Amino acid sequence: MKPTLVILAAGMGSRYGGLKQLDEVGPNGEAIIDYSLYDAIKAGFGKVVFIIRHDFEDAFKDRFDKKLAGKIEVEYVFQELNALPEGFSVPEGREKPWGTGHAILAAKNAVHTPFASINADDFYGYEAYATCAEFLTKKAAEKQYAMVGYRLDNTLSDNGSVSRGLCITNDKNSLVDIDELTKITKENDGVFYYRNDEKHALKGSETVSMNFWGFHTSLFKHLEEGFVEFLSKQGSEMKSEFFIPMHVDDLIKAQKAEVEVLTSEAEWFGVTYQEDKPVVIEKIKQLTAAGKYPEKLW
Q1: Contacts of 150 (CB under 8 A, 6+ apart)
Q2: What distance in Å separates the CA atoms of residue 187 and residue 158, rounded to the nearest whole number?
Q3: Distance from CA of residue 242 to its chain's centroid?
Q4: Is 297 among the domain residues?
Q5: What is the span of the domain harbouring residue 167?
Q6: Residue 139, Cβ neighbours under 10 Å: how many?
Q7: Whole-angstrom distance, CA of residue 106 vs CA of residue 251
Q8: Does residue 24 lie within any of the structural domains?
Q9: Is 273 part of any domain?
């Protein structure tokens, strides 16, 4: 069976200001997500599951249903704040979604094959999809997952801080540890991250997660258990999030999963801030001129 692509598109992009998932960056109004879909179809994915919010539904269906018909199976699922296990409730006043782990969990009933999960607003490159599709088709198993790794200094924004999962691997190229750094900045004298108001230096050559994962469907059972544990400890907090890198890290340490780090020559770029958009438009233009993509995708 062909692998499934799960696209995390429920976030509003608070730092960006608006529905950046559908912001136009291509020569004919294409969004980054259009290039992701084009690359995934080319790489052999057979189904896409969009994880969105109910108020995005019409915009997504209007944009994708017709163009994807006959090319890939499509399903929409919704990440809802009140979709919680029995015994838990949303703290009064909380509006922030529960994070990427909760988002993927929302796709449980729509995913029936090994799957990749990606962010809607990140450009990963065809090679990343091809590499992950091969893993999902040939190697994914109940305890065998994967992650596409990128070099840190190729994933930063000139316009503000970013969040990245910092990865440590062993001699088998398997993940040993993931440290979720939520405030990484590129400054005149180097790359740094801030934690509890303390400044720490980074080399820039570190491998980071850009939330491009390859999973077996066994992940959903782990997510259900992990989300209950997360809510028990942090469910009363207004802004706590159930991050997928942190949960995968827990699975590795508990020896419930091994995660192979896949490398590719793919270039990553994304739109974290409005000021990033002209850079992305120029890079798409260059890739199109080089023949990597047709002038009109669909």
Answers
A1: 207, 208, 209, 210, 268
A2: 9
A3: 14
A4: no
A5: 4-289
A6: 15
A7: 19
A8: yes
A9: yes
Its pTM stands at 0.89
pLDDT at 16: 42
pLDDT of 15 reads 45
Per-residue confidence (pLDDT) for residue 183, from 0 to 100: 93
Number of neighbours of residue 62 by Cβ within 10 angstroms = 10
> Considering the domain boundaries, does residue 294 fall inside one?
no
Which residue in 48, 15, 207 sits closest to 116, CA to CA? 48
Q: Which amino acid is at 82?
A: N
Looking at residue 45, which CATH number applies to its domain? 3.90.550.10
CA dist 217 and 240 (Å) reads 25
Q: Which residues of the chain fall short of a pLDDT of 70? A: 12-21, 265
Q: Which amino acid is at 138?
A: K
Give the count of domains, the chain: 1
